[in-house]
């Protein structure tokens, strides 16, 4: 009783509209009742509701107490969560064994479980007819619902098809599919039979796909005849045919027919759509050891060979489960809308494994944020009554550029939390997201994490509900994430108001286990830079209140005349200009300063000022807010920035252009708009005359 009283966290509902959509019974009972202290008061027993596993620990009274437990006694914290939040076929004997010097980490040794059972089977007794998946197809208004029962049957059929075709536990399966229920079911089918799925974004070139198939030594490829994106048909089968011709180890290629278009079928090809009609939905479960690999996912957009980041079964699944529930304060029955592609880690953790392991309802978005117009997201929110929206800063800035009218046109009252993931979210975009999209009533969940971390590591939550949220920073470490900042000499920097390399001192279950086939590279990249800690490669500023702000990649830190300047800091100043939609700042070789500053800027539509006026104001703002040292040598205005099809800015290309290394741009066919690079090169040459 004392524990419950002390752990009670109070928060307020700002209007009756919120009370109508809130799942908390106390909140709903206040509809139409008098206000308390200016707003209806809604009590939410956060700690006891979310963490019944710790009710016997009487000293745990707040989320901060719980965080301290996760850092100081991780064995107690994670073992209790693992046993209560996952379904095991065999209990584990050891919670964690870790050696950062060798880059080897193991969690829940001795345990056995299956990820598909945790995402589907265990929910069937109570949620069989609940919506598991909302497929938002490319054309607005053509969405489809998939219950847990229907999705389970799809997984069973695909699992049997794979087994009967010779795929076995431990095999790698390359998935090159549209954002479709078939893709989700194929991932879970691999998990069910113990195969390791390697999802490749269905926009990569044949050469990029072949490189990933060969590196993974995958004998099986699953693809589609075509995909539809933004109203355009994309020939996936042609890309796969070209890739497989360079992959001698491939033995079978399954073809899912997303459209009715016929495609040439070769000797390795199997019509998946037809074959599934003859398979049973009852597929045997292959139990997996805790540390058996669940999937591998290749990082993209950087130089050198692709890195097949590999995640374990139990550790990853538990971390995705916990971070989904806690970061977004997800409540049963809500509709969670993560618009990320399944070809990226966000799609893995917060479209599939996090939501489904919690028995939630998750969105699968096939289209683009601008199709058929910039109101697509907001129309979708109104039509599907989404309660959460999780997107990338790049998408947000594109929509901000289009103006407010597209947002105001649609009812967004169902939204409760607004999330963001990717590059640092600048102040202007944060304010627009909060004020315009969220109507000043939705928390902005700005998150920081990586493919390698498996799930969210820094975000405004977990914390007491209603705690302070500041724009432009993810703020607080997740449970079990022990953050530290190190200087250029590899020494930890203590206290607040400090800046340096962001590192994590202790292991957490969701962290990657290796780079497939190259553990030495894994050890060197993440544990060899600063011995004894996990090196994220990102810089961070720890403010006087202990909140963390990401300053950008450490390799995006400029050294101008001996002074280190974060590119994100300069970008933030430029992004604050009312006529600027988005910027990217890079360095380039400078004869005098060592490194010069080169800025690319995308302007908003409907502006009245000339580019010369805007450039002058940008320079004045940078000089005023940062100093003359941060003044760009060049500001190049461009209609867009070169991005991967997932929205990631290709800063490597921007650096090559700034350095006049046009012959080193590499393959730009995988970019969403290759013509943007041509424009930038042409404009750069004009400015260089």
List keywords for this structure.
32% helix; alpha/beta; disordered N terminus; 24% strand
Radius of gyration: 25 Å
Q: Please provide the count of β strands.
A: 35
Strand ordering within the main sheet? 15-14-11-9-10-17-18-28
Structural class: alpha/beta
Uncertain runs: 1-46
- Straight-line N-to-C gap: 76 Å
The number of helical segments is: 24
> Strand count, sense and closure of the main sheet?
8 strands, mixed
How would you sum up the global shape?
A: globular
The percent range for helix content is 25-40%
Instruction: Give the strand content.
Output: 15-25%
Mean pLDDT: 89
Structural write-up:
The protein is α/β, with parallel strands linked by helices. It is 32% helix and 24% strand. The strands form 10 sheets. Strands 15-14-11-9-10-17-18-28 form an 8-stranded mixed beta sheet, sandwiched between helices. Strands 8-7-20-19-21-22-23 form a 7-stranded mixed beta sheet, sandwiched between helices. Strand 31 and strand 32 form a beta hairpin. The radius of gyration is 25 Å and the shape is globular.
């Amino acid at each position: 009783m004392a524990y419950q009283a002390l752990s009670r966290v109070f928060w307020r509902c700002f209007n009756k509209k919120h009370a109508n959509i809130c799942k908390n019974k106390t909140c709903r009972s206040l509809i139409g009742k008098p206000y308390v202290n200016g707003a209806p008061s809604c009590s939410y027993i956060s700690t006891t509701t979310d963490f019944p596993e710790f009710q016997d620990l009487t000293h745990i009274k707040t989320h901060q107490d719980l965080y301290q437990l996760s850092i100081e006694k991780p064995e107690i914290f994670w073992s209790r969560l693992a046993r209560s939040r996952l379904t095991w076929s065999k209990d584990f004997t050891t919670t964690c064994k870790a050696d950062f010097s060798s880059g080897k980490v193991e969690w829940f040794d001795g345990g056995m479980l299956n990820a598909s059972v945790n995402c589907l089977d265990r929910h069937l007794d109570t949620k069989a007819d609940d919506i598991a998946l909302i497929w938002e197809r490319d054309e607005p208004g053509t969405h489809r619902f998939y219950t847990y029962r229907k999705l389970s049957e799809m997984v069973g059929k695909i699992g049997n098809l794979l087994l009967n075709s010779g795929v076995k536990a431990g095999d790698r399966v390359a998935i090159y599919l549209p954002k479709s229920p078939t893709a989700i079911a194929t991932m879970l089918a691999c998990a069910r039979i113990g195969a390791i799925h390697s999802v490749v974004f269905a926009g990569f070139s044949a050469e990029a796909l072949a490189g990933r198939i060969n590196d993974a030594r995958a004998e099986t490829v699953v693809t589609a005849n075509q995909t539809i994106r933004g109203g355009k048909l994309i020939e996936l089968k042609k890309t796969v045919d070209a890739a497989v011709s360079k992959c001698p180890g491939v033995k079978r290629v399954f073809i899912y027919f997303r459209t009715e278009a016929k495609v040439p079928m070769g000797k390795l090809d199997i019509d998946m759509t037809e074959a599934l009609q003859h398979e049973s939905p009852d597929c045997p479960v292959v139990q997996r050891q805790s540390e058996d690999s669940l999937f591998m996912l290749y990082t993209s957009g950087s130089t050198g060979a692709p890195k097949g980041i590999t995640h374990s079964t139990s550790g990853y699944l538990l971390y995705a489960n916990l971070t989904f529930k806690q970061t977004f304060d997800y409540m049963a029955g809500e509709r969670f809308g993560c618009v990320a592609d399944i070809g990226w880690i966000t799609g893995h953790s917060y479209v599939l494994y996090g939501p489904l392991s919690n028995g939630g309802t998750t969105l699968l978005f096939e289209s683009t944020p601008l199709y058929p117009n910039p109101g697509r997201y907001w129309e979708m929110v109104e039509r599907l009554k989404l309660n959460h929206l999780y997107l990338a800063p790049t998408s947000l800035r594109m929509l901000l550029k289009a103006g407010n009218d597209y947002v105001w046109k649609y009812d967004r009252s169902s939204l409760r939390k607004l999330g963001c993931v990717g590059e640092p979210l600048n102040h202007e975009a944060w304010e627009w997201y909060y004020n315009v999209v969220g109507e000043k009533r939705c928390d902005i969940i700005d998150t920081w994490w990586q493919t390698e971390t498996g799930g969210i590591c820094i975000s405004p939550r977990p914390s007491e509900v209603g705690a302070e949220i500041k724009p432009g920073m993810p703020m607080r470490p997740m449970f079990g994430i022990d953050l530290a900042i190190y200087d250029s000499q590899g020494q930890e920097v203590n206290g607040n108001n400090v800046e340096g390399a962001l590192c994590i001192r202790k292991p957490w279950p969701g962290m990657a286990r290796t780079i497939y086939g190259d553990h030495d590279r894994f050890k060197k990249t993440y544990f060899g830079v600063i011995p004894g800690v996990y090196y994220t490669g990102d810089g961070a500023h720890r403010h006087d209140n202990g909140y963390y702000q990401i300053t950008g990649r450490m390799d995006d830190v400029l050294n101008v005349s001996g002074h280190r300047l974060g590119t994100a800091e300069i970008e933030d100043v430029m992004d604050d200009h009312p006529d600027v939609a988005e910027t990217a700042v890079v360095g380039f070789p400078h004869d005098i300063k060592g490194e010069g500053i080169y800025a690319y800027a995308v302007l908003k539509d409907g502006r009245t000022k000339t580019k010369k006026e805007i450039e002058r104001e940008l320079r004045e703002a940078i000089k005023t807010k940062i100093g003359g040292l941060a003044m760009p040598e060049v500001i190049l205005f461009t209609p867009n920035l070169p991005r991967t099809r997932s929205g990631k800015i290709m800063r490597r290309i921007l650096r090559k252009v700034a350095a006049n290394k046009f012959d080193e741009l590499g393959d730009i066919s995988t970019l969403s708009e290759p013509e943007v690079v041509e424009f930038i090169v042409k404009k750069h040459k004009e400015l260089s005359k």
